[in-house]
Amino acid sequence: MIRSSSVKKHNPGTDPEADAVQETGLNADLPPAYSVIDPNASISNAILTHAAEPMLSELKVDVRKPSELVATKEFGLDRPIYFHTNNVSSSSLIVERQVGSSNQNAVTVIAEVSSATSDIKDRCTVTMDVNKQGEYDVFVDFKWTILNAFSTQCKFILRVPAAGSAVHPGIRAEISNDHFGMGHLHHTRFEFITVRASGSYVSLSGISAQRINVDCSNKQVKLVGIECHELCVAASDASIEAVSVQSTVLLDLKTTNGKLTITDLRSPIVYAKTSNSKLSLENVTAGKVDAITSGNKIKCSSTTADHILLKTSNSAIETEAIAADSLELITSNSSIKGDWFIKNKLNVKTTNSKIAGTVKFKDPLAHSVINLTTSNSRIDVSLPVSIFCGIFDAKTTNSSVNVEWPSQFDGKEPFYNYIVNTKSYKRGSVGSSVDFKHDLVAKTSNSDIDVKFIAESI
């Protein structure tokens, strides 16, 4: 059975509840999951009052074969669109540019439905209507049989204007066991994109949106060329790749048991979290970066932020050309290596493995505290003797602490003094006490510590 419902005509004053819905385009009792911008808010009345002509065409159904049909309908740009199915073994959604249409104020929705059996007209219901949430609701429903688990497919296609500059209220989609894809749509700005994809591949490329939310499992999420206010991905057993993403508020990427890769990204706040998989960041600029995994390596390069936290366990942290006011590198039972350009704070901590790095100062006049801590392994750290001015404190057990000074200096030789100078503990100062601004503390056990003050400014 194929069905398309139209919007019922409402006579004001006959039904107070309907009056409220008619006035606002929403029901106040509905859950908050259908937001145009914020999932904790209802659909904005401002979106619905700037309406183009709604539902510009009737539903057209083409039964191509006893086992295949195609349903098509044209909508205005006045409401969000919700895609979902019931009793379908796999579903997908592709959002693409509409080519060859002169109507730049409309989108076209296509549902391609197929079944392994030949009774599709009797088993399938297609509706395209306005739901209680104020969305255009695109729904494909199959009557349940044992064959539904293997034999029914729905391919949704949404075509948006290819020319001009359009604003679309948003897309909400629930798909399974297939894919969701949007590409090369910078000419259209979406108020929101919300995708729930079970066992499905998700790909967004060349997209501009206010808010993007992706909930995905068992496949891959790929984000390329995204411009948005907020981008949030919550995945499980899935990898995430984000390339050339710009966010004005927040980027939050979380998964489990999947690789997380971030390249060429700009955002005030970046949260990146996975488990049991590698996490890598390259060319990231942010106010705050929290990158966390477990049981696998973190690699971070060419990254600048006010605050950076890189944390894993039982695996290494490797850094190159990272700069932060506050930088924390934490792991266990594996090494931490790199060069660290800091302003106020550097905390490097592991166990049973080596720490090796070069410390540079963003602001030589700022107070900086440097803590390097491990156990049963050595610490190698280099600092610029021409900039460092303050206290160094290096201590080990059952091994040696070595402080190395340059053989020659560029300019005036710095004044340094040992307060404690034993084999396993050296505490001293560099420069005049009235100018002290730097503190270095290095601690390990059963292995050496090498502190090298290098002549050139680094």
Topology diagram in text:
Layout: H1 16-24, H2 45-49, E1 60-65, E2 68-76, E3 81-86, E4 90-98, E5 106-115, H3 120-123, E6 124-130, E7 136-142, H4 148-151, E8 152-161, E9 166-168, E10 171-176, E11 179-183, E12 188-198, E13 201-217, E14 220-236, E15 239-254, E16 260-273, E17 279-292, E18 298-311, E19 317-330, E20 336-349, E21 355-361, E22 368-373, E23 379-384, E24 390-395, E25 401-404, E26 416-421, E27 425-430, E28 438-443, E29 449-454
Parallel strand pairs: 3-7, 3-10, 4-8, 4-11, 9-12, 10-12, 11-13, 12-13, 13-14, 14-15, 15-16, 16-17, 17-18, 18-19, 19-20, 20-21, 20-22, 21-23, 22-28, 23-29, 24-28, 25-29
Antiparallel strand pairs: 1-2, 2-5, 5-8, 6-7, 24-27, 26-27
Give the low-confidence spans. 2-12, 14-53
Class by helix and strand content?
Answer: mainly beta
> For the terminal residues, how far apart are their CA atoms?
74 Å
Tell me the number of strands. 29
Largest sheet features: 29 strands, mixed
Q: Helicity range of the residues? A: under 10%
How would you describe the overall organization of this protein?
The chain has 3 domains: 197 residues, no CATH class; 125 residues, no CATH class; 105 residues, no CATH class. The chain is 5% helix and 57% strand. A hairpin with a 2-residue loop joins strand 1 and strand 2. It is built from 4 helices and 29 strands. By secondary structure, it is mainly β.
What's this model, at a glance?
By secondary structure, the protein is mainly β. The protein has helices at residues 16-24, 45-49, 120-123, 148-151, and strands at residues 60-65, 68-76, 81-86, 90-98, 106-115, 124-130, 136-142, 152-161, 166-168, 171-176, 179-183, 188-198, 201-217, 220-236, 239-254, 260-273, 279-292, 298-311, 317-330, 336-349, 355-361, 368-373, 379-384, 390-395, 401-404, 416-421, 425-430, 438-443, 449-454.
